[in-house]
Amino acid sequence: MSDRDPSLRRNAPKLALHVPEPAFRPGDTPDFSSLKIPAAGAAPRPDISAPAPETHPLTTSLVRVLGEDDRATGPWDPKLDADTLRKILRDMVTVRIFDDRMYRAQRQGKTSFYMKCTGEEAIATAAAAAMPADDMHFPTYRQQGLLVARGYPLTEMMNQIYSNRGDKLRGRQLPIMYSDKRHGFFSISGNLGTQFPQAVGWAMASAIKGDSRIAMGWIGDGATAEGDFHSAMTFAAVYNVPVILATVNNQWAISSFSGIAGGERATFAQRAVGYGIAGLRVDGNDALAVYAAVKWASDRARTNSGPTLIEFFTYRAEGHSTSDDPSGYRPTNEAKLWPLGDPVERLKAHLIALGEWDEDRHSAMTAECDSAVRAAQKESEKLGILPEQGKDDIGSMFDDVYAEVPWHLAEQREQALSEGGE
Ligand SMILES: Cc1ncc(C[n+]2csc(CCOP(=O)(O)OP(=O)(O)O)c2C)c(N)n1
Ligand SMILES: [Mg+2]
User: Fold this and answer.
1) Class for domain 49-327+337-389, per CATH?
2) CB of 119 sitting under 6 A from ligand 1
3) Cα–Cα dist 187/401, whole Å
4) Is 422 a residue whose pLDDT tops 50?
5) Which atom of ligand 1 approaches the CA of 115 most closely?
6) What is the mean pLDDT of residues 33-51?
7) With a 6 A CB cut-off, is 214 part of the ligand 1 pocket?
8) Centroid of ligand 1 to alpha carbon of 160 (angstroms)
9) SS3 call for 207
10) How far apart are CA 134 and CA 3, in angstroms?
């Protein structure tokens, strides 16, 4: 009798699959009490040239600097001066105001699409503060803080969002998919995951040329399930590439929770262990911890001590984009109950505890940021908003793709122009 005969296997268990489900759905009361949150200052800080395995215990804990008492503590305290702290705070506040105004602009029909990074502001702004301005970032759509922190004009960002006459990308990209080489900000690609191998490739090229600039690649928790994540990790490990690979674990990928990308089985930082590279898991709502981790990984990469995978643990406080309504898949008060708090409030409280800030100064600074964002918006809207764009120069949509326009596109352009672009 063949061993494929089903009668021989009748006592075997029925095979089954596990489909991860988030702990809380709409209507439930979120309870984060089982979440293990190590105390600030508890994580050891290995030397930047330490062998990768020395960092591996840090892939299951959490690097935290700002304590419950709003003080900075432990070996990861980057000991920043008050001006640097105030600059990071200001950048975070600007990003939040910018996000709110552009979200509203989308609701007013001035553009088709917008994505906020609410609750995640510390990650890009503190990372930018920790690295020289000529290092290269390969960001996703949630690192607008890099541009803000590096002083990219807000008007330019808005011109891109409105695809208006000032948009130097000439409407080629979806709103918010910025690109600016001078600010070390690689063109955002809507194809998730591409940023990781591209950052590794750029950093390899930098090393091959004998340059001293490093790259930082960015990815979301959901996109780590893409093959690109793993190809990038393999190359980074094999060639000891001078790169920082950052996973922003905001626990959601549109309506899929992080378990669908593997987050139930291991932390995202733990993937560094299998590849044999350094890994850190960091409180993404603690600007000082973000700064310290990125500085550590940047110094490590720059001294040829190897790549680092950093997981920034955070929470996506609002919808995925203007096209999303999270009340359909998670409790509405989850962001408020998230125990790692609000990154803006935490840094503000720290500066106040240091005697370097107060409520009046905070209100004045917020008002200044608000005026700057409003002024930029006014300026940008003089150059047009999205619904007004495109019809006047329809032939230009064939430009900038090929050095020489192929005959079939030339033919289509002629046709579009002769039909008046309708
Ligand atoms: C290759 C690819 N697959 C799917 C999508 C559609 N998509 C856009 S954003 C998104 C969720 C990504 O979630 P995550 O990586 O966690 O980043 P987050 O939005 O949370 O910052 C998906 C599935 C895409 N843009 N590209
Ligand atoms: Mg996510």
Assistant:
1) alpha beta
2) no
3) 14
4) no
5) 19
6) 96
7) no
8) 21
9) helix
10) 64
